[in-house]
């Protein structure tokens, strides 16, 4: 009798155990979860790469700001907004006349590699030049740039 009760109890325990039942997920669901996991890992890698690029850009910006502040402290250099660069002097003269007739400085200064640079304006500080650059790019020439002498 004890054996019969033991067998009945054992069969009830075994039949209710989850270990012997079929898994609740299909193979398609498992495959979908694996694919989603792979996609998430890829996004995480891309996110880390973007974080590294952002950190590098911040370092470069900090370095540029240090260089700019060193230029500001020296105050020995003049900052120009350049609207044209010419190897041929007569072309620089012609463009300078156009700039002057438009109400800008139009000065010609020697640049690197024997270029004649035509200015729209000249400034004592980089901040002043940066403030003047946007309107010149909007009204005169989109490719205007800053030159530190």
What would your notes on this structure say?
The protein is of the alpha+beta class and 149 residues long. The chain has two domains: 37-76; 77-148, Sporulation related repeat (Alpha-Beta Plaits). Helices cover 60% and strands 15% of the residues. It contains four helices and four strands. The chain has helices at 2-16, 27-74, 89-101, 126-139; strands spanning 79-86, 108-110, 116-123, 145-148. A four-stranded antiparallel sheet has the order 2-3-1-4. A hairpin with a 5-residue loop joins strand 2 and strand 3 (116-123). The protein is rod-shaped, with a radius of gyration of 36 Å. The model has no long low-confidence stretch (mean pLDDT 82).
Describe this structure in a few short sentences.
It is built from four helices and four strands.
The largest sheet is: 4 strands, antiparallel
The dominant shape is: rod-shaped
Q: What is the gyration radius calculated from CA atoms?
A: 36 Å
Number of H- or I-type helical stretches: 4
Q: Briefly, what CATH class of the largest domain?
A: Alpha Beta
Succession of helices and strands: HHEHEEHE
CATH H-level superfamily title of the largest domain:
Sporulation related repeat
CATH architecture of the largest domain: 2-Layer Sandwich
- Share of β-strand residues: 15-25%
Looking at how many chains there are and whether they match, the oligomeric state comes to single chain
Low-pLDDT segments, ≥5 res:
none
């Amino acid at each position: 009798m004890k054996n019969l009760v033991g067998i009945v109890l054992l069969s009830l325990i075994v039949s209710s155990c989850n270990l012997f039942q079929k898994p609740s997920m299909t193979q398609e669901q498992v495959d979908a979860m694996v694919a989603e996991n792979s996609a998430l890992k890829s996004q995480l890698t891309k996110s880390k790469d973007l974080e590294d690029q952002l950190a590098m850009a911040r370092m470069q910006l900090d370095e540029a700001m240090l260089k700019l502040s060193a230029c500001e402290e020296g105050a020995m250099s003049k900052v120009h907004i350049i609207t044209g660069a010419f190897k041929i002097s007569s072309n620089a003269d012609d463009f300078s006349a156009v700039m002057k007739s438009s109400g800008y400085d139009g000065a010609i200064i020697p640049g690197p590699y024997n270029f004649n640079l035509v200015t729209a304006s000249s400034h004592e500080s980089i901040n002043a030049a940066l403030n003047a650059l946007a309107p010149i790019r909007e009204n005169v020439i989109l490719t205007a740039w800053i030159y530190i002498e």
